[in-house]
Amino acid sequence: SFVRPVSLWVTDCSNGVPDLANPPLYSVYLMPIISFFGASDKALVIGSVALHFVILLVLFLFTRAAFNRTVAYYSMFFYLSCSVVLMAAFSGLPQMMAGLLITLLIAVLYFCDDRKWWLGILAGLLCGLCFLTTYSYGLFAVPVLLYLIFTLKKKRIVGSLAFVVVFILVISPWLARNS
Fold first, then answer.
1. pLDDT at position 21
2. How many of the other CB atoms lie within 10 Å of CB of 117?
3. HEC string of 99-141?
4. For a Cys staple, 47 with which of 33, 72, 147, 172, CB 3.0–4.6 Å?
5. Which residues of the chain, if any, have pLDDT below 70?
């Protein structure tokens, strides 16, 4: 027995056509976890809960750097006590990975300015990884690009172009494979 996405149970994919409905990043993340713990719901939950605690750490570090320690503790408390987040953490679905990437993306954008225009490269990487986690999250590229255009003053062209180039480089192998 092995773990299969629900879409494979509903459709007949025995004709050699690759699964295009599920982006690859979360599956790649789960491979070593499933190899270690075996193919079970327990392995999926362990992988998802691990991401939940990484998000908690990133959230604490970001809010402490952006605001202060008190805000960091409050944000951790509210994050841990949110029932929707807890349900997602124990679901084994890719929401926790997407949540981690989005949290990192927000932190990167918060600290991005003319002196740190190169963070546009990191933003492009994170947006590309968001796309490879859930396809619709690739739409974040548009508001992130607009944000970079409006927040970077002197390095606007370089930072925005770096973002677009890295975003395209990250997603292009997967798009080429599926074309």
1. 78
2. 22
3. HHHHHHHHHHHHHCCHHHCCHHHHHHHHHHHHHCCCHHHHHHH
4. 33
5. 1-19
